[in-house]
């Protein structure tokens, strides 16, 4: 009797194990979400969501940008496009596994989520997201303004460096004879088109070491890079150099001191006449 009752428990146990195995084998899963880490403004973005239904049937694929509904593809092959700022969908070339965005703008930057739903009980859902950033690199090198022809010990080197328009904003660095120096101030300007222009001001009192070679090399470096959210770094580095003359002597006086000395000599000569 005990043996027969024990044998009676085997079929239900086997059925449960078989059911669990079937559910595992037939589990819905997203194989790959391919989203460009960054794109230039005006480009076309191709986002791909590859999934495996196994034994399940597809109900719909839905796309979101920053948790806002932008596109869906249903089992009946119907497409729905939702209009939001920064997203222009090419519905003709979009389907259940591909989403095409046209003419991306700075407002297209954000998190894109692909969500896949099944059409059979128990209903299942799988989703994943990835970040895309839209950039606009500068077209020109930075410009340096305010330089004079010649400098001497004690003179003030007062210059401005201005970056070209870009997004994200450029970071500016100063180098005097290949030695990095800190700026006096930095100002960020934002245009009506969302692009940025950075201006950095340098004010430095020159010492004999700056002038030892008889000239001063001044360099401004502009760097535009994607944010830390992007999986693949983009960096645009540009620089501008200028050279100005400097008094080579370690004891060379400044221009203002030379002028004062000259005036004093003229005054003394007139006094002794």
Describe this structure in words.
This protein is α+β, with helices and mostly antiparallel strands and 273 residues long. The chain folds into two domains: 27-135, Immunoglobulins (Immunoglobulin-like); 143-247, Immunoglobulins (Immunoglobulin-like, Sandwich), CATH 2.60.40. The protein is 16% helix and 44% strand. It has four helices and 18 strands. The strands form four sheets. Strands 2-9-8-4-5-6 form a six-stranded mixed sheet, with no helix packed on it. Strand 8 and strand 9 (125-135) form a beta hairpin. The longest helix is centred in the C-terminal third of the chain and has 18 residues, at 255-272. The chain is rod-shaped. The N and C termini lie far apart (143 Å). The model is unreliable at 1-10 and 13-25 (pLDDT under 50).
Comma- or semicolon-separated keywords:
4 helices; 273 residues; alpha+beta; five-stranded mixed β-sheet; Immunoglobulin-like; 18 strands; disordered N terminus; six-stranded mixed β-sheet
Structural class comes to alpha+beta
The fraction of residues assigned to DSSP E strands is 35-45%
CATH-level-2 architecture of the largest domain: Sandwich
Low-confidence stretches at least 5 residues in length (pLDDT < 50)?
1-10, 13-25
Net shape: rod-shaped
Protein name: Ig-like domain-containing protein
Membrane topology: Single-pass membrane protein
Organism: Nasonia vitripennis (Parasitic wasp)
Domain Ig-like: 11-124, 138-231
């Amino acid at each position: 009797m005990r043996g027969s009752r024990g044998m009676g428990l085997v079929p239900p146990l086997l059925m449960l194990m078989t059911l669990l195995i079937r559910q595992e084998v037939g589990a819905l899963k997203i194989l790959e979400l391919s989203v460009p880490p960054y794109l230039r403004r005006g480009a076309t973005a191709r986002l791909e969501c590859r999934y495996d239904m196994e034994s399940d049937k597809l109900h719909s694929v839905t796309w979101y940008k920053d948790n806002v509904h932008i596109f869906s593809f249903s089992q009946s092959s119907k497409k729905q496009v939702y209009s939001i700022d920064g997203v222009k969908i090419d519905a003709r070339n979009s389907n259940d596994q591909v989403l095409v965005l046209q003419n991306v703008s700075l407002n297209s930057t954000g998190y894109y989520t692909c969500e896949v739903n099944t059409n059979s009980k128990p209903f299942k859902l799988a989703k994943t997201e990835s970040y895309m950033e839209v950039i606009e690199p500068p077209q020109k090198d930075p410009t340096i303004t305010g330089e004079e022809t010649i400098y001497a010990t004690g003179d003030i080197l007062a210059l401005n460096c201005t970056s070209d328009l870009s997004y994200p904003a450029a970071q500016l660095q100063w180098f005097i004879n290949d030695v990095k120096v800190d700026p006096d101030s930095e100002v960020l300007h934002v245009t009506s088109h969302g692009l940025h222009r950075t201006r950095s001001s340098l004010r430095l009192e020159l010492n004999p070491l700056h002038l030892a070679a008889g000239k001063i090399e001044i360099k401004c470096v502009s760097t535009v890079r994607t944010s830390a959210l992007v999986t693949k770094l983009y960096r645009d580095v540009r620089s501008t150099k200028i050279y100005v003359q400097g008094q080579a002597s370690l004891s060379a006086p400044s221009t203002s001191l030379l002028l004062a000395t000259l005036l004093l000599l003229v005054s003394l000569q007139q006094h002794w006449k």
